[in-house]
Design a protein that fits this description.
Structural class: mainly alpha
Largest sheet: 2 strands, antiparallel
Number of strands: 6
Oligomer: single chain
Distance between the termini: 23 Å
Length: 261
């Protein structure tokens, strides 16, 4: 990332170009994942199963099932399955785009105006040796995990549950695990930089906790739909909140730059 004309110091600090088009697109890409909730509501409204669809007992993937019939003891019939699967794919592509465009430097400073990114830090006792800073490592990990979550939900959309393919289950796990840990690490990265860090980290903890419960119970709980949504909803909400933080920072930097000209 190019800075705002500031030369990097010996410690490896620099000011990323938060005003860049890449940062703007990346932030809005994360924020756009909220479209999922609109699509889900529309698909549920069009549900044609023998019983009304319930978010408490119905699995999310039932909404994307292509065929009507009994699937794992559940009566499934979703006429708008194409919309649901398209929403999964769009959500995944948005996360992949955000992971690609939001560099580690941007993530390090996006939540705190005036902050500098620090790529390297000197090793104690040896001024000539440098290692990647902890914040940089966290930012890189967030990007990787976000990309994993994005790829997972793309797979979910391309391989519906009734295709009897293990890729659907694998894609869902990628989304839950990648998204949950990305949020947890992002909350740690932005700790004390923005009050939103607590909310983002809480979303990650909620997702991971629900995933553990789901694994231990094999989803054999009175309300499996609720449990699955406690895995998935926090990821979508948390990543969109992160996108909002970044988009606001980009907007503020651009306004400040225009006021100086």
């Amino acid at each position: 990332m190019n800075g705002h004309g500031a030369a990097p110091s010996a410690a490896g600090t620099f000011l990323p170009d938060v005003r860049s088009i890449r940062a703007n697109i990346g932030g809005w890409a994360h924020l756009s994942v909220v479209q999922y909730f609109v699509a889900e509501a529309a698909v549920i409204e069009a549900w044609a199963g023998p019983q009304p669809y319930s978010r408490a007992t119905g699995f999310i993937s039932d909404l994307g099932a292509v065929s009507c019939g009994v699937y794992e003891d559940r009566d499934v019939c979703s006429p708008l399955h194409l919309l649901m699967n398209a929403s999964f794919v769009v959500q995944g592509l948005a996360l992949l785009l955000g992971a690609a465009l939001l560099g580690a430097g941007i993530l390090c400073v996006a939540a705190r105006p005036g902050a500098r990114a620090r790529r390297f830090q000197e090793v104690a006792g040896n001024g000539s040796a440098r290692v990647l800073s902890k914040s940089w490592v966290l930012a890189v990990a967030v990007r990787i995990l976000t990309a994993v979550a994005g790829a997972g939900t793309v797979i979910v959309g391309l391989v519906p549950e009734d295709h009897a393919s293990p890729w659907h289950f694998a894609g869902a796990l990628m989304f839950f695990i990648g998204g949950g840990f990305a949020l947890l690490l992002l909350g740690i990265l932005w700790f004390r930089q923005t009050p939103m860090s607590w909310f983002i980290a809480a979303c990650g903890v909620l997702c991971i906790g629900a995933l553990v419960v789901g694994g231990l119970t094999r989803m054999e709980v009175p309300q499996p739909g609720t449990l699955e949504r406690l895995m998935g909803y926090p990821v979508t909400i948390g990543l969109s909140a992160a996108g909002l933080v970044i988009a606001q920072r980009v907007s503020a930097e651009r306004k400040a730059a225009r006021s100086r000209t």
